[in-house]
Write a structure and sequence with these properties.
The protein has about 230 residues and is α/β, with parallel strands linked by helices. It has helices at about 20-35, 40-55, 60-75, 80-95, 105-115, 125-135, 155-160, 175-185, 220-225; strands at about 5-10, 115-125, 145-150, 170-175, 190-195, 215. The radius of gyration is 19 Å and the shape is elongated. Bound molecules: magnesium ion.
């Protein structure tokens, strides 16, 4: 049976996102290597600190930049202000990166919006996320936008409650097993998992076998099952 409501993830589901963070990561490692520091160590330290810092710094470009500054201070306990400014600039560039829609999204969303009530559901820094949403050409197709610090079963349940959406009448669509699919499953909501090659490592998780999870290889294929 088809649902009435669609809750749709934004980053790496509607538009490219993680590649900007990956590019910034590489720029930081090169910056450290250029100062004579070990490239592999800069790379692994940044990965580790980014994961460890999520509870303190949250998600997003400036959180990544703060982790870069932390790594830099491990290499140079007396930091150079110009290097710190350079790291800040890397973060700002990611913060306001251009929004490139993923293939099929702009063609499919208008069709879905004629039939479903749709919610954009995203996590991270509200200013950063809302900036991308404003820049995107698809905001008009959504009835609601919700940005939370973390996507988990509890925040997912609250979104259902806030918008008065019954679990059995709602589907979740996203690229992240951990942040999109598992929270939906925990709330009895069917989901469509659309894997993306550049999804952040921290978002990966083994998915259980479930009749509540449909996997598609491209966004436009939603029209095959929802229209
Ligand atoms: Mg995503």
């Amino acid at each position: 049976m088809k649902p009435q409501n669609l809750i749709i993830d934004c980053d790496d589901t509607l538009w490219e996102n993680n590649r900007f963070f990956m590019d910034a990561h590489v720029r930081f490692v090169e910056l450290m290597a250029g100062r004579g520091h070990d490239r592999a160590r800069a790379d692994s330290l940044l990965l580790r600190l980014e994961m460890e810092n999520v509870p303190r710094y949250g998600y997003g470009a400036m959180s990544q930049a703060r982790s870069m500054a932390d790594v830099y201070r491990l290499f140079e306990p007396v930091p150079d202000e110009a290097v710190l400014a350079g790291i800040d600039a890397i973060g700002r560039a990611v913060f306001s990166h251009p929004v490139y829609m993923l293939p099929g999204v702009e063609e499919t969303l208008p069709l879905l919006s004629e039939r479903y009530t749709m919610v954009m559901f995203t996590k991270g820094n509200p200013d950063e996320q809302l900036g991308k949403i404003e820049k995107s050409p698809v905001k008009e197709y959504f009835s609601h936008v919700k940005c939370v610090p973390e996507k988990d079963p509890d925040t997912f349940r609250r979104v259902l409650e806030e918008f008065g959406m019954a679990p059995e009448e709602t589907w979740m669509i996203g690229d992240s097993p951990r942040s999109d699919i598992m929270p939906a499953l925990a709330n009895g909501v069917k989901s469509v998992y659309i894997p993306f090659s550049m999804t952040w490592a921290l978002e990966h998780q083994e998915l259980p076998e479930s009749e509540h999870i449909i996997t598609l290889d491209a966004f436009h294929r939603l029209s095959e099952i929802l229209l």
